[in-house]
Structure formats: structure tokens, C-alpha cells
Design brief:
2 domains; 424 residues
């Protein structure tokens, strides 16, 4: 497929930023929780085929089309797959390490919470391949269901109520949504339900595309590169690439519905080659109004119901091996976050509390499962900065030095070592 236009000129960056800001205002509220970038290796199973003939558009015009999209009603099936090179986060692994995670004991005793708590359950989308059913009818009605071989997990927002139900454990989780009657304004963030929902885990092509468009600046190449057909819909292919070397991101491709401007498919491929890191797309989509009954929910007979306000799990916390991690409170010791570089090769630099590197398994401070995960990801490195360990995924890498400095970003191992040497 030949591109419609040459690489986007950097002189148009201001216009791209303007289009990007508009795009952020029109997020389709499909995933009640704002479910993530976050961060897929699907093959032709995403029903992508054909090169339909469509009128030529520029990258700027296509970004404006995304920004102008007013799609608030839709239903369909999304296939999402994530290949970060990490072990599976399903089951106990996801529950043990996610905020508020862990399967619920009787009445949630021990601070373990509910198995239906979306803050832990939706972390499973961070690895593997999943099929989702999604539906939306404006800002007050959304539903997302994660389908498993023998079970289903659903998250439903209907007016003032947010329900989550895990059929495997027959547990339900309920909270009140933000912007309910009596709040100071819709979406004010003051409702009790908002704090119970996970942040930063995009699960639809629209949410992923909005995050990608935020990165468009002078360090980025943007162009329209042909057409495709996704879920039976004609679409343009918007390609976003870093201009800088050293980034782990190869390119991002967004298939944009030619009629509505709604992103239908999102693919992030790594600079190192191989399968996509993130690939999410509709296999079926309908832009009609979903039936009102789609958003109805009543807990099944015998289901254990946990109310969000009564959950005993600490906000932002988890327990593992009898030791409780306090989340945000424990993170207060992280000192002087600094950003090195710009654009796609930006590296976050910070200092761990106590001026020491990560504890080892022999110290007794790291649970065995966590230690095995760290050992499988780490590479020993050295340089002018001294020595340390690079923990790697196919997208995000982090160098932790023996003296407690951390350098992290969507950059290569060599870029992290170079940054640590320069900061010494």
C-alpha cells in the first residue's frame, strides 16, 4: 500500500497538537474504568482485509476527523492481545500484585477484597490475548465483558451505579459512580465509585489512539499510509513513528473508520522487530443504539456482594507474604524525579529510598514469586556509573543501580546505560 502523502512536516506540529487536544475531548466511554497503555500480537484474526478505495486525506485531516468524532453509541467485540515479554498476569499473579488485589476471603477479611474488584481483575489485560464485548450509550451507560473459556467478567456502568461481576467466583462488586445526583457536577470525580476503578489500562482502540496522539510533537513522524478494512468497515491507516533512535517503539498504526472517524484498530510494533507489543481491534462493531437491557444488572442468587465503601482492602495497597505494601505512602520516599531527554527517548531518573538498589532473594525482603519475576527480567550491566541491573520488557526498560538510582523509559538498554553514565 502506497502512502497518500510524504512524512508529516514538522512545521505542522502546532496543528497536530491542536487536533490532538480536540481528540482527547471525545473519548468514547466504552470502558467504564478507563481500562490500559499501556500497553499486541494478533495475526489476521482481527478481520483486517482488503485495501478499499477511499478519497485521499492528509494526516492533519485524519487527526481532525478523529477529534470531531462524536461516537457515543456502539456495541461490538474487541480482540486485544499484549506481548510485553512478561509472564502471564492472570489468576493469582494479577490479584496478588494489583492494587486492592487478591481473591476475597469470607467478607473480605484480611484486607483481600473482592475477586470482582475491577482494580485487580482488569490487570489481566496486561498480558496475553483476550476477547471483550463492549457497549456504550452515552456517558452514563457502558458495559465491558471479558470472555474466558468457562467464565465471564463484566463491568457495568448504568447511571449512578457501577457493578462488576465475576462468574467464576460468583462474586459481585458495587460502588456509586462519580457525578451522581447531588454531586457538584458530572464527572467531578467526587463520587465514591471513581476511586474504585482502575486507571491507565486502555482497552479499546479509541483509548489507545488518544494516548498515542498525545505523543505527537517535533520528535514524531505522522502520515496516512493506505487503507484497510476492519470488522467490515472501510478505514484509513494512520502511522505514527518516532524520529529519534534509541526508542523501543517502532511505530504505531491506527485504523480509523472512514465514515465516523472512530479508531477501529490499534497496533504498536517494537523497534526490535517481531510480533506487535499491543494490538487491539474490533472484530465486530455496530454504531446503533444498544438495547437498554444491555446495562441492567442484578446479582445472581447466592452471589457474594462487596460494597465499594465497605471494602476492607487499603486504597492503592496490597498484601503479599504477610507484608503489606502501602502503595502511595511508601512511594513518598522516592526522591527528586527528573526527566532526561525529550519525546520518545525520555528517561525518568529517580532515587530509591535509602540509597540502595533492589533487595535480593537472600535478604528475605522479596517474596519468592516476585524474585523469580525479577530474575527472569534482569540483565547485569556496568559503566562509568558503576553497576546495576536492567529489567526489560519489549517496551519499557528500567536500570536500577546498586546505589539506588533508577532510570526508566521506552528506550533500549544501551540508552539507559548512557543516561546513567552522563548523570554520574
Amino acid at each position: 500500500m502506497a502512502p497518500y502523502e510524504p512524512e508529516q512536516n514538522t512545521s505542522e506540529t502546532g496543528e497536530l497538537r491542536a487536533g490532538r487536544r480536540k481528540a482527547a475531548r471525545y473519548v468514547v466511554p466504552v470502558a467504564v474504568a478507563g481500562v490500559a497503555a499501556a500497553t499486541i500480537g494478533l495475526v489476521p484474526a482481527l478481520a483486517t482485509s482488503g485495501d478499499p478505495k477511499l478519497p485521499d486525506v492528509t494526516a492533519q485531516e485524519l487527526i481532525e476527523k478523529i477529534a470531531a468524532s462524536d461516537t457515543e453509541r456502539l456495541s461490538g467485540t474487541v480482540k486485544i492481545s499484549t506481548d510485553l515479554g512478561l509472564p502471564s498476569f492472570g489468576g493469582d499473579m494479577a490479584g496478588g500484585f494489583a492494587p486492592g488485589g487478591g481473591s476475597g476471603g469470607e467478607d473480605g477479611e484480611g484486607g483481600e477484597g473482592s475477586a470482582a474488584d475491577p482494580r485487580s481483575k482488569l490487570m489481566e489485560l496486561a498480558t496475553g490475548t483476550h476477547t471483550l464485548r463492549v457497549a456504550a450509550d452515552g456517558p452514563d451507560k457502558q458495559k465491558l465483558s471479558v470472555l474466558d473459556d468457562a467464565a465471564e467478567y463484566s463491568l457495568i456502568h448504568n447511571g449512578d451505579d457501577v457493578w462488576a461481576y465475576d462468574s467464576k467466583s460468583n462474586e459481585a462488586y458495587h460502588s456509586k459512580s462519580a457525578g451522581k445526583a447531588g454531586d457538584s457536577g458530572k464527572g467531578s470525580g467526587k463520587g465514591s465509585g471513581e476511586k474504585d476503578l482502575p486507571k491507565g489500562v486502555p482497552s479499546t482502540p479509541k483509548e489507545l489512539a488518544d494516548e498515542a496522539l498525545k505523543a505527537v510533537d517535533d520528535t514524531t513522524s505522522v502520515k496516512v499510509d493506505g487503507t484497510a478494512q476492519v470488522a467490515g468497515r472501510d478505514a484509513y491507516r494512520l502511522v505514527i513513528k518516532p524520529k529519534q533512535s534509541g526508542s523501543t517503539v517502532g511505530q504505531i498504526t491506527v485504523a480509523v473508520d472512514s465514515e465516523t472517524g472512530t479508531p477501529l484498530k490499534f497496533t504498536l510494533t517494537p523497534s526490535g522487530g517481531g510480533s506487535a507489543v499491543v494490538d487491539a481491534g474490533f472484530t465486530k462493531v455496530d454504531f446503533g443504539k444498544p438495547a437498554a437491557s444491555t446495562f441492567d444488572f442484578t446479582p445472581p442468587k447466592g452471589a457474594k456482594v462487596t460494597e465499594g465503601d465497605d471494602a476492607k482492602a487499603e486504597e492503592h495497597g496490597f498484601k503479599d507474604g504477610g507484608k503489606e505494601f502501602k502503595g502511595d505512602k511508601d512511594m513518598e520516599g522516592l526522591n527528586d524525579l527528573n526527566v532526561i531527554g525529550e519525546g520518545w527517548t525520555s528517561i525518568a531518573e529517580l532515587e530509591l529510598p535509602g540509597g540502595q538498589g533492589i533487595p535480593t532473594g537472600g535478604s528475605g525482603d522479596v517474596p519468592p514469586d516476585a524474585q523469580r519475576l525479577l530474575d527472569s527480567l534482569g540483565d547485569k550491566v556496568s559503566g562509568e556509573f558503576g553497576s546495576g541491573t536492567v529489567f526489560k520488557t519489549r517496551l519499557i526498560n528500567a536500570l536500577i543501580t546498586e546505589d539506588g538510582k533508577v532510570y526508566a523509559g521506552a528506550v533500549t538498554k544501551d540508552a539507559l546505560v548512557k543516561a546513567a553514565d552522563a548523570a554520574k
